[in-house]
Design brief:
DUF6463; mainly alpha; 0% strand; 5 helices; elongated
């Protein structure tokens, strides 16, 4: 299930890049024309474009972490799933028409996988 979460987060990050490049083409080209350094004013559309794309590496890295954990046969801590879920829910509450909905499935899968792992570990330790 962690690999599914990882692939879901990969897809979400790719969608985020594509949508960001499409929605924020003008602010991003303004950043490039300004020479990149110190080109993002906190009170303009460049700021929105910047933060929209800055989340992409974090989503991709979390997807890699999920896939890596599956390959290593380890479970991610459940707080990671809960943090992702709370982030999604706060984002949905503040901005219902957004991509925050896409964070719910991987966060729930991380929580379920962590819970199942704890149950399996507990039952194995009682058998010994």
């Amino acid at each position: 299930m962690l690999r599914l979460s990882g692939y879901w987060l990969y897809a979400t990050s790719i969608i985020h890049v594509l949508v960001g490049l499409w929605l924020y083409a003008e602010p991003l080209s303004n950043i490039a024309r300004s020479g990149f350094f110190n080109a993002v004013d906190p009170f303009c559309d460049r700021n929105t474009a910047f933060w929209f794309l800055m989340v992409v590496p974090l989503l991709f890295a979390m997807g890699q972490l999920c896939c890596w954990a599956q390959i290593q046969s380890i479970t991610l801590p459940n707080f990671l799933g809960w943090c992702l879920l709370v982030t999604a829910l706060v984002g949905i509450f503040l901005m219902p028409i957004s991509g925050f909905w896409l964070l719910i499935p991987p966060s729930v899968l991380i929580i379920i996988t962590s819970h199942q792992s704890k149950s399996n570990t507990t039952s194995i330790s009682y058998k010994a």
